[in-house]
Specification:
The protein is an alpha/beta fold and 573 residues long. Among the domains are: 85 residues, Gyrase A, domain 2; 92 residues, no CATH class. Helices cover 54% and strands 12% of the residues. The chain is built from 20 helices and 15 strands. The strands form 4 sheets. Strands 7-6-5-11-12 form a 5-stranded parallel beta sheet, with helices on both faces. The chain has a 4-stranded antiparallel beta sheet with strand order 1-2-4-3. It has a 3-stranded antiparallel beta sheet with strand order 8-9-10, with helices on one face. The protein is globular, with a radius of gyration of 28 Å. It binds one RNA strand of 78 nucleotides through strand 2, helix 2, helix 6, strand 9 and helix 12.
RNA sequence: GGACUCGUAGCCUAGCCAGGAUAGGGCACCGGCCUUCUAAGCCGGCGAUCCCGGGUUCAAAUCCCGGCGAGUCCGCCA
């Protein structure tokens, strides 16, 4: 576990450079080593930076450095070119190292040695008032991919869902559920708990315009916050049913959780009150008509209103106060706490961080923010009727994938076709979302979300299936000669496969899951070129063996990348 | 009014954090490749003032400042 061929290459090169710097009397500048266009070599760095320090033109510097850098294990030679020092890898060595590491570690290649460090990744948290829509899916997909990457990079990760079961919205649902006869509701859109229950919420929300209803719900809210145990149990019952529907949908997306945190816990266990107490005792609170707030202005928050309320005038706590209590709880259970939040929570998150500092909490919270998903015709909005349920999107994706499979594979059984279609459909949705940088706003377009060509999940799955096809028709190999790997496509592929563990680490450490998505595409694309240029089964014995090793290694690496992305690999399609 | 995020070909996007070689891809469009390991693939063509203006630097899509445009937020809601 923990093998990282690429890191070894970089370390070797950095050492070589350091030795050259010392031999030449150059300063140690630590210029980042970078992948370079293949026509120039494999890895390189600009020598321009030394120029001023040593008083020589870049090309001369590069030439001197190249002369002072001998070949070593992974690097065969160096070349000075237009002021850059370019290095060429020793492919037989890299090939040997990379292939044997992969075939040895197999499904574990790229996985770092466990550190025991505990991380909680909170994502997908919503009000349990109805089915989740495509906008929410971005949160879940980013969060789940992040979880996978962190786990692969050696952390012990808990996936957590904060159920906002406190507040007016949920209690409106409960009021509706307990007071409205089912006959008066609109028909159920889908035979699932969340769809059944949301009808009560919709109708009850509309009825809130009636002051009498509003007052009744208000009373429930107060009773709930006063700690009415019997009411709390009823609310929990409704929420649990709703959550079954929501979690079922997410599970189809391949998103699952280790823990649900029910927000009402912060009320029943007194931790929310404790937060208020600590903030008040810290002397940072002010009061207006009995409501407590912290003025955030001295801490860099600007805007129309810099007051951040932690209680209402009746003394009850607010969402952010309870969230604060929740975070303290997370701190007790972890070494790191990461949230995945929509960009509308940015300010609130800063306020929360400030509040933690005011409470003298040493720990930091961290968040990955994503821009909301919109529709070409405007914002996703329940009230505006512009909603696309995640279930509908998944159904449509699966149906479309099913048509494609059916068209090309008459030989498969119905069940096999269904299995492939689902992997393709769900994969397409996940990949389409995760491949773009979270901060970028995206517009939901059916054609795009359901596209099965180009940079999509099916493209990755297809390359995987092609590799499997070759391996199915071959025999097990015990030895191979990496010196035979001379084709440029073979070398590109080796280089990419060697980088995989580094990409896992990088993408997890910077919390940028889209980097893994893009890497997987590059890997699959390169395999397709290899597939075109390098016949495997038809090659003569020795070449056939080493190419089979490459194909098998590729299958493991892409398979592992897909696992990080939560996309199912397919033996055939 | 203030804060934050985004701005790369007709459309979408990588690269930006850690500045370096002719800015990578994908979709769409045009043309080509299935007696050879699955054509959900491959090749070629078309297409970019990297939003604008300054600055820093030997070097800026990348860093800094100022604009412009789009989005988000500034509730005793969650």
């Amino acid at each position: 576990m923990g093998v990282d061929p690429w890191q070894d290459v970089l370390t070797e090169l950095a050492n070589l450079r350091r030795e050259a710097e010392e031999a030449l009397g150059y300063p140690h500048l630590d210029i980042p080593l970078q992948l370079i266009p293949e026509e120039f070599g494999d890895v390189g760095f600009p020598a321009h930076t030394y120029s001023k320090e040593v008083g020589k033109p870049p090309q001369e510097v590069a030439e001197e450095m190249v002369a002072a850098m001998p070949p070593r294990l992974y690097v065969a030679r160096h070349e000075a070119r237009s002021g850059y020092v370019n290095s060429f890898l020793n492919y037989p060595t890299l090939g040997e190292r990379t292939l044997s590491s992969i075939l040895d570690e197999a499904n574990g290649y790229g996985k770092a040695t466990p550190t025991g460090r505990r991380v909680i990744v909170e994502h997908s948290s919503v009000n349990p008032t109805g089915p989740i829509h495509v906008g929410r899916a971005r949160n879940s997909i980013i969060g789940d991919t992040l979880y996978r990457l962190l786990e692969w990079s050696g952390l012990e990760v808990t996936r957590e869902f904060l159920v906002n079961d406190v507040g007016k919205q949920v209690l409106t649902l409960v009021w509706g559920y307990e007071n409205l006869p089912e006959e008066e509701l609109e028909p159920v859109e889908r035979e699932k708990e969340d769809y059944k229950l949301v009808r009560y919420y919709r109708k009850a929300s509309k009825m809130m315009e009636d002051p009498k209803v509003a007052e009744e719900v208000g009373q429930i809210v107060r009773r709930f916050e006063e700690g009415d145990e019997e009411l709390r149990r009823r609310v929990r019952g409704v929420c649990e049913r709703m959550m079954r529907g929501i979690l079922d949908t997410l599970s189809k997306l391949n998103v699952n959780f280790d823990n649900l945190f029910w927000e009402d816990q912060t009320i029943t266990d007194g931790s929310a009150r404790e937060v208020v107490k600590r903030l008040r005792e810290g002397g940072r609170c002010q009061e207006e008509e009995g409501a407590l707030y912290v003025d955030m202005e001295p801490y860099g928050i600007t805007g129309r209103n810099t007051r951040w309320f932690i209680t209402r005038k009746d003394g009850t706590t607010l969402y952010t106060t309870r969230d604060l209590a929740y975070h303290l709880d997370k701190f007790r259970r972890s070494d790191e706490a990461i949230n995945v939040l929509g960009e509308d929570h940015r300010l609130e998150f800063r306020q929360l961080s400030i509040a933690l500092k005011l409470m003298k909490v040493e720990r930091e919270v961290e968040s990955v923010f994503y821009a909301h998903v919109g529709l070409p015709e405007g914002r996703l909005s329940t009230r505006g009727g512009r909603v696309i349920n995640l279930d509908d999107l998944m159904d449509e994706a699966n149906a479309r994938a099913y048509r494609e499979v059916r068209e090309r594979r008459e030989d498969l059984s119905e069940e096999e076709m269904r299995t492939i279609a689902e992997a393709v459909g769900i994969g397409a949705i996940r990949y389409n979302i995760v491949k773009v940088q979270p901060e970028k706003k995206i517009l939901f377009r059916w054609e795009e979300a359901l596209s099965l060509e180009g940079q999509t999940a099916p493209f990755l799955q297809y390359s995987y299936a092609r590799a499997c096809g070759i391996l199915r028709k071959s025999e097990a190999i015990d030895s191979w000669d990496p010196r035979l790997l001379e084709n440029p496509q073979e070398r590109s592929l080796l280089k990419l496969m060697a980088r995989f563990p580094s990409v896992v680490k990088e993408s997890a450490a910077t919390r940028r899951p889209h980097q893994m998505a893009n890497f997987a595409y590059e890997l699959a694309k390169t395999f397709n070129l290899f597939y075109r240029d390098c016949p495997v089964l038809r090659s003569e014995e020795a070449l056939r063996r080493v190419r089979l090793a490459v194909v098998e290694a590729f299958r493991f690496v892409l398979g592992n990348a897909l696992k990080c992305l939560g996309i199912k690999a397919l033996e055939e399609m």
